[in-house]
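Hi, here's the filled form for the chain we discussed.

Project: internal
Contact: R.S.
Residues: 295
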Amino acid sequence: MRLSDGLLKKIRMLLAGEALTASTLNADWVDILVEEGVLVREFQKSRQRYRISDRNAFVSALEDIDERFRNVNLLTGNMESLTGRSLQAAETGDSKTVICRSCPGFPVNSYEPIACRLRGREYIVAPEPGTFTFISDWKNFQIPENVTVIGIENMENFRLIRDQRPFFDTLTGGGPILFVSRFPQSKDLREWLKEITNRYIHFGDFDLAGISIYETEFAVHIRSNNGEQQRCSMFIPCDIDERLRNGVKKRYDDQMPKYSSLSSPDPDVQRLIDLIHRHRRGYDQEGYILRHPIS
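And the returned structure, exactly as it came back:
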């Protein structure tokens, strides 16, 4: 984490109970704290804001991300005196003084070999069943134009793609598919999706929170301005009506206070939102994993 007086000022504002807009609080660790429930994402029309859920938990989480936050002066004063010591410690080989991301990138998976390019050289993505590949140098990872990218939120679904193949083949007509996941939580996958031109299909939970993740963390960033060339969509199975009838009511009730005004410019996604409201239930994507694996 790169410390600056501006960042420390924002952290102090959060500690004081203020909410910050997503545009002013833009860092990889934000997604991590949201996932852990330390930061709460709020929505006001089309704007996102962040607020801490618990002051002590927030301070503890900051210390886990960067040990320098154990120095209380960071949260109460300026960092002028600390910067010199941090740089000196870094130069002496204390790797824990300056924290950096040790695992950038995202995992990929596929049914069949896909000839890609990594750092300008041919790279075949062909994980054996029971494995997947992690792409660390994602900025230099390129895929063929005819490949459909399917993003999977849940790691169990991501690991067991072969057990869900009948559903995915209907989306592409049997064409090549590269499955991706944003694990660990970071913006790397989204940034890569913004750079490529391939069709992207998002597969997440069929509840209000799952749709919100798709809309705010993916679709709004990679949708084409030309509706006829839209390359970003959400995977909505043909039997979702029946699935939602047998979904989880508590999930819907718990999410309603936060996502009651959720909407989408995509007619298909909006119909899914309306369907969820009609049944007042949500459905987990793990329900689409076949319990008898197929080859």
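Let me know if anything looks off before we file it.
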